[in-house]
Amino acid sequence: MPPPRTNPLLAVDALHISFGGVGAVRGIDFEVYAGEVFALVGESGAGKSLTARALLGMAPRTAAVSGRVLLHGAPVTPADLGRRIARIPQDALSALSPVHRVEDQLALSVRSVQGLGRREARAAARRALADTGLAPEAAAAYPHALSGGMRQRAVIALALVNGPDLVVADEPTTALDPDRRERVLTLLRERCAAAGAALLLVTHDLEAVRRHADRAAVLYAGRIAELGPVERVLGRPAAPYTRALLAALPTAGLPHRSRLPVLAGAPPVPGATGEGCAFAPRCPDATALCHREDPGPRTVDGRRVACHHPLREAV
Ligand code: SF4
Questions:
Q1: pLDDT tens digits, residue range 31-90?
Q2: 307 C-beta closer than 6 A to ligand 1
Q3: Which residue, of 12, 23, 29, 259, is most buried by count of CB atoms within 10 Å of its CB?
Q4: Mean pLDDT for all residues in the chain
């Protein structure tokens, strides 16, 4: 059941990210509420990972970032990272220090963030690792000695050990096969729920969104094409782009790597989006209006959609 909507935990307001004056993220607004799983989804280059990095204060040095990112109504500060916002990167191995045993890494993090003593920090580390199902022998090992799935468990424990309000996971299962990917995402969602943390999941995988997210924002060319409850956005998409992504999903039985959506045409080069809708050159529903005017967001059938002709196929 979706969590109750009160004040947002995270509010992203008019986020713009540009490189040399060329916009890669072009005015993104969304909110994440306590306890929910919110997905940012789209093709490669849509701006979802860049958005996630900006939330964490990790946008590239060459990026110009404007807009507001509020956590509990106040701007996110570097002190929030690791304490109130935790990150799970694409590459689990890179998140773990190769020169420390897994358990020691978590204990160090607990000591530095929570200021606990050595014994209490180690106990907290062991609890967090055990909660992810990692055996004590694996917890006492160095990261290179662990399997990919074990490392993912360790990274989830590391993200949650200091009780964050929000976990930002950027394509956390890209390197895993479908079975492991599903197990890791289930574990991540369940551990976040048990810890009371919201999860912001950045992914290209619509099936993962369908199974694990409460709400989703579909990004195209640095803008949100559609945002709403997953059962509406993926069950009865209003935006032609969402429909196109769903139609591009491979049928069951195809290999894992073919899960990346493949649409006809290519996304626009940043800075070359023109006056009209950025999706117009690829959109089967495009009209003259679409090529002339950029559609602003509107509320349609319980979700926000940026399209002049939403729900065309569904009505
Ligand atoms: S505004 Fe027009 S071109 Fe853009 S998605 Fe909607 S129908 Fe397609």
A1: 999 999 999 999 888 999 999 999 998 999 999 999 999 999 999 998 898 889 999 988
A2: yes
A3: 12
A4: 90
Report the CATH architecture of 1-35+42-77+215-315.
3-Layer(aba) Sandwich (3.40)
- State if residue 125 touches ligand 1 by the CB under 6 angstroms criterion: no
Evaluate: CB of 38 within 6 angstroms of ligand 1. Answer: no
| pTM of structure | 0.91
Q: How many CA atoms lie within 13 A of 174 on its CB side?
A: 16
Q: From the CB of residue 104, how many other CB atoms can be counted at a distance below 10 Å?
A: 17
For 202-222, give the DSSP string.
EES-HHHHHHH-SEEEEEETT
Q: Helix or strand or coil: residue 49? A: helix
Task: Please state the atom number of ligand 1 nearest to the C-alpha of residue 241.
Answer: 5
Q: Is 286 in the pocket of ligand 1 (CB under 6 A)?
A: yes
pLDDT of residue 132: 93
Q: Is the C-beta atom of 295 inside 6 A of ligand 1?
A: yes
Q: Whose CA is nearest to atom 6 of ligand 1?
A: 307
**Residue ranges per structural domain of the chain:** 1-35+42-77+215-315
Q: What is the pLDDT of residues 191-234, one digit of tens each?
A: 999 999 999 999 999 999 999 999 999 999 999 999 999 999 99
Q: Are 295 and 308 in contact (CB under 8 A)?
A: yes
Q: In angstroms, rounded to a whole number, what is the distance separating the alpha carbons of residues 79 and 95?
A: 19
In short, whether 220's Cβ falls inside 6 Å of ligand 1 is no
Q: Which of 285, 311, 312, 315 to mutate to test the pocket of ligand 1 (most atoms within 8 A of CB)?
A: 285
